[in-house]
Amino acid sequence: APGRPFWVGTSWKMNGLPDDARSYAERIAAVDDWHGVLPFVMPPFTVLADVARLLRDSPVQVGGQNMHWDESGSWTGEISAPMLRQCGATMVELGHSERRRHFGETDETVNQKVHAALRHGLTPLVCIGETQAERDGGVSDLVLARQVRLALHGLTAAQAGRVMFAYEPVWAIGEAGRPAPPALVAQAAAGIRQELDRAADAPGASPLLYGGSVNLENAAPYAALADIDGLFVGRAAWTAEGYAALARAA
Ligand code: PEP
């Protein structure tokens, strides 16, 4: 949106062995002008500390792709907010549709994780989006409003304004995804923005990003939308060159 900071971030999902992760981080650490864009990368846990160390003196923020709501304890296989912080993360992605679909993530667990992230000084990036069936059934706006409300449940208005969101229509994500028409994104984003403004203490406080099959060819019309404050990119940003080119284009 004009006049507000613009974010460009990527989640590597389950990609990035140490050598590739380091060379990606070194390449984007060498970018000397981000032209006002706020950059962030979300690598897998196993390389997060390495990537964060290589990006320490750059404007690029680093985030985890998930975390647990508790600080420590008997939660085999999980990672906590303090662990992410210790690795150098400042952000955490929560509620991605792949986690909701394959790993049982719910609006309730996302909400618990949002609280934990804020408690520990991590900026949560909550992913929301309707499925194709929900869109066909005409309930997209209801679904999106409900996902926002439940993610922000129990937060003060000041806290709610510190939560970032990514609108990612489930049918637009990944290999099987089709890019969403910008007009559809504009309409959905306006509804989400209304809901965010109800929860936060200042209009426009919560950054709202768009994600789903964004690439160099289709990025500009999304970036130009009034209610969109950034792009959240998967596949097209899995190389340092791809990511840097998208940040430049935005
Ligand atoms: C995502 O899964 O968050 C995403 C935006 O992926 P892609 O860009 O690959 O569709």
UniProtKB/TrEMBL annotation:
This is Triosephosphate isomerase. Homodimer. It is found in: Cytoplasm. It comes from Gluconacetobacter johannae. GO terms for cellular component: cytosol. PANTHER family: TRIOSEPHOSPHATE ISOMERASE. GO terms for molecular function: triose-phosphate isomerase activity. It comes from the Bacteria. NCBIfam families: PRK00042.2-1, tim. Pathway: Carbohydrate degradation; glycolysis; D-glyceraldehyde 3-phosphate from glycerone phosphate: step 1/1; Carbohydrate biosynthesis; gluconeogenesis. It catalyses: D-glyceraldehyde 3-phosphate = dihydroxyacetone phosphate; L-erythrulose 1-phosphate = D-erythrulose 4-phosphate.
